Amino acid sequence: MKFTYETKKDTRSGFGAGMEYLSQNNPKVVALCADLIGSLKLEAFIKNSPERFFQTGIAEANMIGISAGLAIGGYIPFATTFANFGTGRVYDQIRQSVAYSGKNVKICCSHAGLTLGEDGATHQILEDIGLMKMLPGMVVINPCDYNQTKAATIAIADYEGPVYLRFGRPVVPVFTPENQKFEIGKAIHLIEGSDVTILATGHLVWEAIQAAEILEEKGIKADVLNIHTIKPLDTAAILASISKTGCVVTAEEHQLNGGLGDSVAQYLSQNRPTIQEFVGVNDSFGESGKPADLMEKYGLNAAAIVEKSIKAISRK
Amino acid sequence: MQTQELKNVASQVRRDILRQVHACQSGHPGGSLGCTDLLVGLYFNSMKLAQDANGKVVFNMSGAHEDVFYLSNGHISPLLYSILARRGYFPVKELSTFRQLNSRLQGHPTPHEHLEGIRIASGSLGQGLSVSIGTAQAKKLSNDPSTVYCLMGDGEQNEGQVWEAAMYAPHHQVDNLIAFIDENGQQIDGPTEKVMSNRDLEAKYKAFGWNVLRMDGNNMDEVMTTLAHAKSLLGKGSPIMVLMKTEMGAGVDFMMGSHKWHGVAPNDQQLADALAQLNETLGDY
Ligand SMILES: Cc1ncc(C[n+]2csc(CCOP(=O)(O)OP(=O)(O)O)c2C)c(N)n1
Fold it and tell me: What pLDDT was estimated at residue A1?
């Protein structure tokens, strides 16, 4: 199957569109934001349901606690800010008041990863998937484009339990079908192949598709899966793919420590030890720059996936 | 430096801010322009900075036996970078690398790239006052009589950590600290009053045990007299807080009066219009 796109949009706008839908279709959903309404694309939600929106000011820890309280009262709070301030900054608040207490809070964060660009490392969290997946009971989702982010936003409202939804700032190709049903924890098989499995999440899914096309020109057939949910991991889909290919490359806009690759390696080492190569940030902070330049410098693009795929195959 | 000279420096610093932000089409001009007069007053007049035999500033991470400044609202980095460069910490032409790949002038200040003049990363708001207090206590422990300065935003006052620090400093009699709040009345989502009202900051800080002063932060004469007044209150058992009224975008008429220019870069025409309002006193980089 050939993947094409007509437009590029930011995944955070997909979140905003999902919230707009929820403002009209789920009266239990409430939204909170810590002085970043525009960045989180919440204008439509606020316009439709001003009484169900709470501005917290620049006070993320308070926002998480308020959300837990709203959840106890029967609402479905969507707590929103940039990914660094919504995870790392408030880790204990999430751990105690949300995860350990089992509250139905959706932590929804934009500007994850390097691609927020010029603001630099203070804002470019590359540890959030790890932080969140370590919390027992927390679902971790990193959708790949506008349509999928919108669908995931709508889907998590119907799921009972804490969720971390991670998305980004820049415009990226919109290539998943509009109105594709989003199933939490169910990987999406994108490209059929038998030489190497590529498991990608978030912005790296499009890069994985590009990589598969480059590999195909070299006579290598990649089996590509969109792992939009890092936790729970779709181990059945991963096993099925690896039984065909015998090697795997994971790709994510995140530290290698604690990311998707880690989860895959942990599972495979116990169940089916497999040759694995990793595309991700190798134990360093990010920096200011243009998104594409950063992805190039830190080896997070199609070229890097191609290189790691060839390496994985050579190790078989 | 005399007030007129300081005003000349401020004009050049405002040009530097606009040109940095324009070149990379990102960054935060509004708050930077508003706080320019304070930082010029501090770095070019009030602060005692370590210097070599020729009178050139030298950077020591420890800041021992010199005054130390921390920028807690790290997004106004183009202001701090211009000040540090113009004061001689690093080459002025390095300002052209602001927010570009491989630059030491990161979007938000950091010691990670070893930029002279920066001791702590900021950008995630609400952390600078705590760091300032720690350094002030280190000075006390080592009998170092110099002063620690800290600047925060008014939106930044929303953060709980600020109030943990506000409670701590008077309790521990950290009286070698002068902090400032940039009361421009704006934050990202709109006027601070509407987003999350600070209500009466003077009453709040007083109740926490601070010595509180007020000034017009865009009037250089008043900045100088208030800084002198604040210094006269050092060593008297209480930390000092200066509530500083400023105008976001001060110095550029079309950038003043709203939060619109918090984090937006001017285009070519807007840059030209803005620079036309500011004299090139020290030479552009
Ligand atoms: C912990 C944290 N939350 C959110 C942000 C995003 N942010 C950057 S600047 C800003 C507004 C700051 O307002 P203020 O302190 O008044 O500064 P001003 O807009 O006046 O420059 C926000 C919310 C941040 N940098 N850090």
Answer: 66
pTM of the model: 0.97
Alpha helices in A232-297 (DSSP H): 235-245, 260-271, 291-297
Residue A219 lies in a domain: yes
Quick one: A227 and A259 in the same domain?
A: yes
> Residue of the nearest CA to atom 4 in ligand 1?
A58
Residue B257: predicted pLDDT = 87
Of A20, A43, A51, A60, the catalytic one is A60
Gap between the Cα atoms of B251 and B32, Å rounded: 11
- How far apart are the C-alpha atoms of A153 and A141, rounded to whole Å? 10
Question: Does residue A239 sit at the B interface (CB-CB below 8 Å)?
Answer: no
Rounded Cα distance between B240 and B147, Å, is 11
Same domain (yes/no): A42, A165: yes
Are residues A46 and A128 located together in one domain of the fold? yes
Ligand 1, residues A32, A58, A123: which to mutate, most atoms within 8 A of Cβ?
A58
The whole-number pLDDT of residue B24 equals 98
Cβ contacts of B101 on chain A, cutoff 8 Å: 287-290, 293-294, 297
- The answer to whether residue A301 sits within a structural domain is yes
Nearest to B123 among A61, A122, A290 (CB): A122
Give bridge partners of residue A248 from the DSSP assignment. Answer: A197, A276
Q: Which whole number is the average pLDDT over B171-187?
A: 98
State the smallest CA–CA distance between residue A59 and chain B in angstroms: 5
Of A135, A150, A173, which residue is a domain's last? A173
Domain hosting residue A88, numbered range: 8-173
Contact of A40 with A107, CB cutoff 8 Å: no
- For residue A118, indicate whether it is catalytic: no
Q: At what angle do helices B268-275 and B3-24 cross, to 10 degrees?
A: 170
The model's pLDDT over B221-262, given as tens digits with 9 standing for 90+, comes to 999 999 999 999 999 999 999 999 999 999 999 999 889 999
- What averages of pLDDT result for each successive group of 10 residues across chain A (316 residues)? 92 98 98 98 98 98 98 98 98 98 98 98 98 98 98 98 98 96 98 98 98 98 98 98 98 98 98 98 98 98 98 98
- What CATH number does the domain containing A36 carry? 3.40.50.970
Q: Among residues 84-113 of chain B, which lie with CB inside 8 Å of chain A?
A: 99-103, 105-108, 110, 112-113
Dist CA A246 CA A239 (whole Å): 10
The number of folded domains in chain B is 1
Closest CA to B270 of B12, B1, B4, B25: B25
Residue B188 — very low, low, confident or very high, per pLDDT cuts 50/70/90?
A: very high
